[in-house]
Amino acid sequence: MEYTIDTATIAAHEMYVYETSEKADEKEMDYPFDGIWFSMYDVCKLYHDGIIEDVEKEEFEEAKQFLKDTQSLTHDYQEKVFEF
Q1: The pTM is what?
Q2: CA–CA dist 31, 82 (Å, integer)
Q3: Three-class DSSP labels, the chain
Q4: Closest of 20, 42, 33 to residue 76, by C-alpha
């Protein structure tokens, strides 16, 4: 699926990984989608590292793919190397 910022934001808000994140896009920021993206990245990294356990493997895989699919929509994280 090819995303726009609007469709990616809607999709992210429907994911469990977003629900367990800090929801940084709800704060005032220049690039709200960057907040969504990196909040979800943090949750995935914490799950991968075994720090949190309330994410199902399927939810993690869905979020990880979403992050890869939408990385190009970010402002500050286009070159971010995945640590998981």
Answers
A1: 0.92
A2: 20
A3: CCCCHHHHHHHHHCCHHHHCCCCHHHCCCCCHHHHHHHHHHHHHHHHHCCCCCCCCHHHHHHHHHHHHHHHHHCCCCCCCCCCC
A4: 33
Contact, 52 vs 4, CB < 8 A? no
How many other C-beta atoms lie within 10 A of the C-beta of residue 53?
Answer: 8
Q: What is the pLDDT of residues 2-35, one digit of tens each?
A: 999 999 999 999 999 999 999 998 888 999 999 9
Residue 15 · residue 40 · CB < 8 Å: yes
